[in-house]
Amino acid sequence: MIEYLAGTLLSLGIVFGSHWLFFRQETHFRWNRFWLLGGTLFSLLLPMLSLPSTTAIRWAQMKLPEVIISPLSHPTANSTLGLNDLLLLVYVSGCIIMLLRLIHQSWQLRNIIQKSADGQEIGGMQKVSTSSVASCSSFFWYLFVPREFDISNSRDRSIFFHERAHQQQGHSFDLLIFQALRCGLWFNPFLYLIEKDLRIVHEFQADVAVIQSGEQKSEYMKILAQQAFPQFENLFTHSFNKSSITKRIKMMNQKRSGKLSILKGMMILPVVLFTLFTFSCNNSNNNSGKISSGRVIAEEVIPDVQPQFPGGEKAMLTHLYSNIKYPQLARDKEVEGLVLVTFTVNTDGTLNNFEAEKDPGKGLGEAAIEAIKTMPAWEPGKKNGKAIKVEYSLPVRFKLEY
After folding, report:
1. What whole-number distance in Å separates Cα of residue 389 and Cα of residue 349?
2. Strands 238-239, 117-122: parallel, antiparallel or unpaired by DSSP?
3. CB neighbours (10 Å) of residue 82?
4. Same domain (yes/no): 319, 251
5. Which residue, of 41, 43, 192, 249, has the greatest Cβ tally within 10 A?
6. Cα 20 to Cα 351: distance, rounded to the nearest angstrom
7. Are both 92 and 69 inside the same structural domain?
């Protein structure tokens, strides 16, 4: 999971970088919207796809807590959080905070609609008059306007055409998707950069719709320049004057992009898709415990139900403390260090395949293995309701002073 989340930094970076380098100055706004939204979703969903392959099974190796053995004090288990545990804790905390923020913003928007909607419709949009906004904004078919809003006024009419374009082109769907993605990818700066550019593309599209409705470009640009920033902002709404006014005016005066820019997009698209596909497949293999070798993939079987020592982990540690003895030879030679013992819990709960993968010598490895061999049969691990073999590694640290 951590590898996948870290991989989103690269995949979303590719989507944002390709847009920033090749498309942000182009006036093909539908294409730009497709690139930013579609590229984001594609790069995140691609690792979840699985390709047909020849699969070989290997058993999962689970890690037990480190046991510290000392001749001078009672041994203890090392229960400190590892780096992955800390990263996961920070990530989950961030997700909870972002989710609560999303719920708060949704509740705020709901309250404003319930308190201020007067049932009046303007051009297919429901009018929400409130003193909490200084200019228009929209969310789906809801039009948030100040109380003095007057559709017969040319200025307000142009603003209304702009907000109606957001509604007709479904821009609120895009914002909902990105607010949901923020909850899981709150740490990813490229997600915020892509959303920022997408919001600007929305504004470009709405500006074009206003001009196409018959409004004078020069008069509309004067309205843009006169706008002040709104008092009310929400994660889900489009505000008429929220985005960069300078960029919007510049884009309206820019010459329309020609067929060459479309050809450029068609040439760049396969390259970016291939890069995302290659990276995402590699990342997916790493995350799922699959190791690719030619056309054969070794799949690691992770149990749904972990094997368990009779009485639980505490009872297991107590058993080890009582049976692991610091060898006298190692004490005399002042040898200490980490012994890493691997063993297998079979489908009937018995243990075998004991091996010291790491051993400082002088009897330390043998002492750890002999103590582990005295453990009784475990409750076996299970996968899809069936008992499976599970390999364990147990770190035992011998310390002369503790």
Report:
1. 9
2. unpaired
3. 10
4. no
5. 43
6. 58
7. no
Residues 190 and 44 in one domain: yes
56, with CB counted inside 10 A (0-12, 13-18, 19+), is exposed
Residue listed under structure tokens 């018995």 = 350
Structural domain contains residue 379: yes
State which residues form the domain around 73: 59-79+304-398
Are 291 and 15 spatial neighbours (Cβ–Cβ below 8 Å)?
no
Asked if residue 249 belongs to a domain, the reply is yes
Q: Cβ(389)–Cβ(325) under 8 Å? A: no
283 part of a folded domain:
no
CATH (domain of 315)? 3.30.1150
CA–CA gap between residue 117 and residue 39 (Å, rounded): 36
- Residues 345, 392, single domain; the answer is yes
Q: How many CB atoms neighbour CB 26 within 10 A?
A: 20
Would you state the structure tokens that stand for residue 6, as one six-digit string? 């870290």
The span from the CA of 169 to the CA of 171, in Å, is 6
Cβ neighbors of 14 (< 8 A, separation 6 or more) are: 43, 272, 275, 276, 279
Residue closest to 60 by CA, chosen among 290, 397, 348: 290
Domain assignment of residue 297, yes or no: no
pLDDT tens digit at each of 402 positions of the chain: 667 777 788 888 888 888 888 888 888 888 889 889 988 998 887 766 544 544 444 555 667 777 777 665 444 444 455 566 788 889 999 999 999 999 998 898 888 888 776 777 787 888 887 766 556 788 888 888 877 777 778 888 888 888 888 988 989 999 999 999 999 999 999 999 999 999 999 988 888 888 888 878 778 887 777 764 444 555 556 555 555 677 787 788 777 776 666 676 667 777 766 766 666 555 555 544 444 444 444 456 677 888 889 988 888 888 888 888 888 888 888 888 889 999 989 989 999 989 988 888 888 989 999 999 999 999 988 888 888 888 888 888 888 875
Helix (H) or strand (E) holding 299: strand 296-301
